[in-house]
What does this fold into?
Amino acid sequence: MKNAIKGFVLPYPIARSLRLGVIMAAMLLFACREAPQPPPTLAPDSTGESGGASDDATGAGSGGTTALAEDAWKIVQQRGRLIVGTSADYPPFAFYTEDFELDGYDIALAGLLGERLGVDVEFKDMAFDGLGGALLVGQIDAAIAAISITDQRREQVDFSTIYFAGEGAALAAAGSGIVINELADLAPYRVAVQEGTVHETWLQEEAVDTGLLPPDNLLVYVAADKAVADLRAGLVDVVVADKLPLEFAARDESLAIVGQGLNRQRFAVALARGSTLLSPVNEALFDLQSEGELARLAEQFLDLDTTEVQPLPEPEATPEASESVRSSNVCIDAMTLIAHLAFDDDGMRSPPPVSPGTPFQKTWRIQNNGTCTWTTGYVLTPVGGNVPQAGMGGAATPIREPVAPGETYDITVNLVSPLVAGVYQGFWSMRSPAGLLFGDRLWVGITVPAQPTPTPPATATVSPSIDFRADRTAIRAGECVIFSWNAGNASDAFFYAQGQQPDLNRVAVAGSQTECPPVTTTYELRVVMGNGTTETRTIRIDVQPSPAAPFFESFSVTPSHQIAVGQCVDVRWRISGDVTTIRVTRNETTLWNGAPLSGTSRDCPPAGEAAYSIVATGPGGDSRALQNVTVLSATPGSGTPTATPAGPLPIINNLAVNPNRIFAGTCLTVSWSVSGSVNRVQLRRDGVLVLDFAVFSGNVTDCLTNEGNYVYRLDATNAQGNAVFQQVSATVVR
It folds into this structure.
C-alpha cells in the first residue's frame, strides 16, 4: 500500500494494528501506539474551533460522564450528522493534503457511510490513543482510523464488519536460506520497505524502536519496485510488503516468498459498546462491498487492483465484556479544543504572517471532557507538522495546575517561526502521565513571508600573496560551491566554515574544495606566513532556500575527516519530503543510484581525497549533503600529520549528532560508541574539552545559543597513548 500524498512530510506514524499490550478499561482502549502525529482542520464551523461534545452527541455531556445514549442511531438521525473520530497521521488511510484538507481511504469510507445513512459527516482529528475514551464519553459517534480488531478491544467496544483485510510477507533471493517465521527472524538482515505503508510503521515501531533491528538495517524506499530491484542486485536481503504484490515479483523464481502472515490487518469501524448504530453501519458496509465501492477505494488509495484485494472474512460474534472490564473504575482521558486564543488561522484558511526567525506564543483554550483530573504530569507535546520545520522549536509544555473534569484551561507554548518562507502547520497532542496521547489534535498555522534577497557580496579582495576565491557566491539550497586558494610561500593554511575549529581543518597552501552549505555561510582561509604572521580571508555564500526541496533529517560519514588506506567508511542518511530519486556518490562516481530514503552504504576509498555526496531530487528542487574525507597512504610521506601507531587501536563504532541542524536556543544530542583497546574517551566541541574519561557508549545533550557551524570531535586513546578520532558537525540557525 502506497502513501498517496506527495510533497507532504509526516513524522513516523506508529502502527495501530500492533502493540496491543494490556488494555485496562476504556482509558487504555486504543493505547497501542505512541507517536508523533500531524495535521488538522477539523470542525466545519467558520471559527476554526472544534467545540466540546454536545449533549445531543451520544448522551455524554461536557462533565465527563460515560452514560451511553439509549438510541445512538436515533440521535444521529435527529442531529443529521455523524461525528467520526479519526487520526489523520496514517497515510494512505487518513492524512492531510497540501491544501490542509482531510483525505484517505478512511475519510472517503466515512463519507460513503454518511451518504448511505442519509446524514452529513463531521470529522474530529484526534490522537489515536484517545479514540476509545472519546467513544465512551460521547465525544464521537464512531471511530474510523485503520483500527485493527483485537480480542482486548472487542471486549470494550463494538466493531462493525471488517472493511479491509491484508497481511504482509517477506521476499528474499531464491536459495538464500532465509526463513522469516516471526519479526525476530528479520534481525540479522537488511530489510527494505516502502515509504508510507503500514509495514514501514510496523517495522519502525516493533523492530527498530524496540532495538530488535538496528536502524541501519531498515531501508525505506520511495517505490516498491526499486526495493525489489535492489534485492535482485544484492543491496538488501529482504523486502517486506503486501503479500500479493510480492508473490507477483517472485513469479520468475529468482526470488521467493520466505515469510507470510506478517503484520496482519483487519480494519473495522469502532462504536461504543451496545450502540444502536452497529446495525445500520453494517448494512451500509454490506452495500458498499456488494457494489464494489470498497474495492474502488482500495484501488484509489492503496494502489491495489481487484485481483490484489484480499477477500473480507465473515463477521464474528461480539464477545461479552469481561467482569474486570465491567467493574473497572479506571478513569478516562479526553480533551476537546474550545478556541484558538492567539494566532487564529481560521481553520488554515488564513494563517497569520510571522516574520522569519521571530519568537511568538500560541494559546489554545481546551476542555477536560474526560473523567480523570489533569495534574502537572499531563503535558501538551509537539507531534509533527506539514514539513519538518513546522515544529517551530516548540517543547513539551506541562499543565500548571489541576484541571478537573468539565473545566476549561488556557495553555500557551513558546515558538519561533521558521527562516524559510512558506505556510507552516505544527501539531500538538495531550499526553497523559502514562505516556498515552489523547484528545483533539491542536495546531498552529502561520505564514512566513518571503524576504528580499540580499545582494551577494563581491568575492574577497585578492592580495598579491594570497589568492582565495569561489566560483560563485549566491546559490540555491542543494547546490555546491568550489573554493580555490593559493597562499604562495605560506607555511600553513586552514580552510573552514565560520564556527568550526581552524586547527581541525588544515589544508595544503594551494588547493581547492567543494562545499554545499545548507544555509548562508561564511568561509575562511587562515594562512600562516613564513614570518609567523597570520592572515585571514573570508567569502560569504548566500543560500536561497528551496522550501519544497527534499529535507535531510540526518547525514553522516563515519569515520569522518581522516582514515588510512584499507579502512572503510559508512555513509548514513535519512531524507524526507517529496523525493523522486536519491544518488550517493564518491568524487562524482556513483555508489548507489535510486537509494532508499533512509539507509547506509559502506565504501573503502583509495588514497587521496574522498568527497562523499548525497543528492536528493524532487519536484521542488535538489538537496545535497557532502562530507570530505582524507585517505592517508599506507606509508605516509614527509609532512603527513598522522603516522600509523603500533599496537591495537581503539575502534570508534559511531559518533552522531541528532538533529544536525537546530534553531538557536534549542538542543541537540551527541551520541557515541567505542570498543577495542580503549583507555580514555574525550569529547570536544570546537576544540574545547566537553567530557574527559567519558563512558564507552553514551550520549550528552548540548544546548546552543549562537548560530554557526559546530564540530564535535571524539578521541579514543589506548593504554599506550595512541589515539583515533572522529568528527561530526552541526549547524545552528536563527
Notes: The longest strand covers residues 255-267. The domain at 26-163+268-448 is CATH 3.40.190.10 (D-Maltodextrin-Binding Protein; domain 2).
